[in-house]
C-alpha cells in the first residue's frame, strides 16, 4: 500500500510538471503597430457615414502556438473630452463589436487589424478627446505573453457654417413690396447655422437700422427692427448674439422685419443691407 501511494504521488507531480512545461512553451511579443487609416479628426455630426481609425498589430513569436489579442478600453469605449464623451466601437475588418469591457480578436499570419469607429449621427463637439486601449497578447492556453497600451488621441477642429433657407433663399436681395407703417414682414428666409461649438453671431446694418431712399438718402429714411426667432432687436449699432452648443448641431433662425410708424415719406425705392457673421465663441 505504501508503494502504490508513492507511485501515484510521483505520477501526479510529473503530470503537473508536464502541463506547466506545455504552457510555458509559447513566447511572443507585439512587435509594432502600423497606422492604416484615420479620418476621426474630420468627423461631422451631420455626415452620412461613420468615421474611423484603422491600425494593424504585428506580432513576433513561436509559430507552434496560436495567439489572440484581447482589447479593452480604459474609458469603456468612450473618447473623453472636456465637455462631453463620444462613444465609439472596436472591431476588425469583418465585424464591429458592441461596447463591452473586453473584446477578443483572432491573429492570423502574425497580424490582426483593429478599427475604432465613431458611428454617424454621434454628437461631437469640437475639442480634444482621449482614451487608452490596452492590447493584451495571449496564447491558446489563455496565458499573457505580452501587453501594450495604445493611446487614442483625437482632435476635432471647430466647424461653423451659415446659410439661408426657405423663402427666397436663393437670392440674398429681398423685395418687401409696399412699405406700410408698423407692418411686420415675415416672408424672409431663415438663417441656418451649423456648428460644433458655441458661437457668436454679429449682425449689423449698413444704414444703422434704416431703409434709405435710393435718391434722397440724406432726406428720407424709415426706421425698422429685425426679429431673430421672434425677438426684435434694434440695428442702430452692431448686435451680438451668443448661441451655446447643445445636442443640436444645426438650427434655424427665422427672420422678420417690422417698420416703425412713419409719414410724409417720398415715393420711391428704399433699401438697406444687413450682414450676418458667425464665429466660434472665444473663452
Description of the molecule:
The protein is 8% helix and 48% strand. It is mainly beta and 283 residues long. Strands 13, 16, 17, 18, 21 and 22 form a 6-stranded antiparallel beta sheet that branches. It has a 5-stranded antiparallel beta sheet with strand order 1-2-9-6-7, with no helix packed on it. Strand 6 and strand 7 (96-97) form a beta hairpin. The chain is rod-shaped. The protein starts with a helix and ends with a strand.
Total of helices: 1
> How many strand segments?
23
Query: Which percent band covers the strand fraction?
Result: over 45%
Overall pLDDT level: 87
**What is the share of helical residues?**
under 10%
The largest β sheet comes out as:
6 strands, antiparallel
Q: In terms of structural class, how would the helical and strand content be classed? A: mainly beta
Order of helices and strands: HEEEEEEEEEEEEEEEEEEEEEEE
What descriptors fit this protein?
single chain; 283 residues; mainly beta; six-stranded antiparallel beta sheet; five-stranded antiparallel beta sheet; 1 helix; 23 strands; 8% helix; 48% strand; rod-shaped; disordered N terminus
How do the helices and strands line up, and which of them pair or pack?
Blueprint: H1 2-23, E1 28-38, E2 51-61, E3 67-73, E4 78-80, E5 85-87, E6 89-91, E7 96-97, E8 103-106, E9 111-118, E10 127-139, E11 144-156, E12 160-165, E13 184-185, E14 190-195, E15 199-205, E16 210-213, E17 221-228, E18 231-233, E19 239-243, E20 250-253, E21 255-259, E22 270-271, E23 274-280
Antiparallel strand pairs: 1-2, 2-9, 3-8, 3-10, 4-5, 6-7, 6-9, 10-11, 12-14, 13-21, 14-20, 15-19, 15-23, 16-17, 16-22, 17-18, 17-21
Amino acid at each position: 500500500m505504501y508503494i502504490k501511494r508513492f507511485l501515484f504521488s510521483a505520477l501526479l507531480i510529473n503530470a503537473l510538471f508536464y502541463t506547466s512545461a506545455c504552457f510555458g512553451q509559447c513566447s511572443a511579443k507585439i512587435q509594432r503597430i502600423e497606422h492604416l487609416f484615420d479620418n476621426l479628426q474630420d468627423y461631422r455630426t451631420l455626415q452620412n457615414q461613420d468615421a474611423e481609425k484603422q491600425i494593424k498589430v504585428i506580432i513576433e513569436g513561436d509559430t507552434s502556438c496560436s495567439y489572440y489579442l484581447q482589447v479593452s478600453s480604459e474609458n469603456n469605449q468612450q473618447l473623453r473630452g472636456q465637455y462631453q464623451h463620444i462613444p465609439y466601437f472596436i472591431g476588425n475588418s469583418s465585424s464591429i463589436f458592441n461596447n463591452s469591457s473586453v473584446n477578443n480578436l483572432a491573429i492570423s499570419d502574425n497580424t490582426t487589424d483593429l478599427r475604432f469607429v465613431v458611428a454617424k449621427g454621434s454628437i461631437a463637439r469640437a475639442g480634444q478627446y482621449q482614451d487608452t486601449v490596452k492590447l493584451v497578447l495571449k496564447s491558446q492556453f489563455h496565458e499573457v505573453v505580452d501587453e501594450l497600451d495604445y493611446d487614442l488621441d483625437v482632435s476635432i477642429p471647430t466647424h461653423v457654417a451659415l446659410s439661408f433657407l426657405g423663402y427666397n433663399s436663393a437670392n440674398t436681395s429681398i423685395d418687401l413690396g409696399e412699405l406700410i407703417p408698423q407692418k411686420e414682414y415675415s416672408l424672409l428666409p431663415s438663417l441656418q447655422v451649423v456648428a460644433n461649438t458655441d458661437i457668436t453671431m454679429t449682425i449689423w446694418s449698413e444704414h444703422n437700422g434704416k431703409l434709405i431712399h435710393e435718391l434722397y438718402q440724406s432726406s428720407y429714411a424709415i426706421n425698422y427692427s429685425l426679429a431673430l426667432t421672434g425677438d426684435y432687436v434694434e440695428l442702430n449699432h452692431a448686435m451680438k448674439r451668443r448661441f451655446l452648443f447643445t445636442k443640436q448641431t444645426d438650427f434655424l433662425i427665422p427672420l422678420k422685419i417690422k417698420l416703425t410708424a412713419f409719414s410724409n415719406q417720398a415715393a420711391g425705392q428704399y433699401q438697406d443691407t444687413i450682414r450676418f457673421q458667425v464665429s466660434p465663441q472665444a473663452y
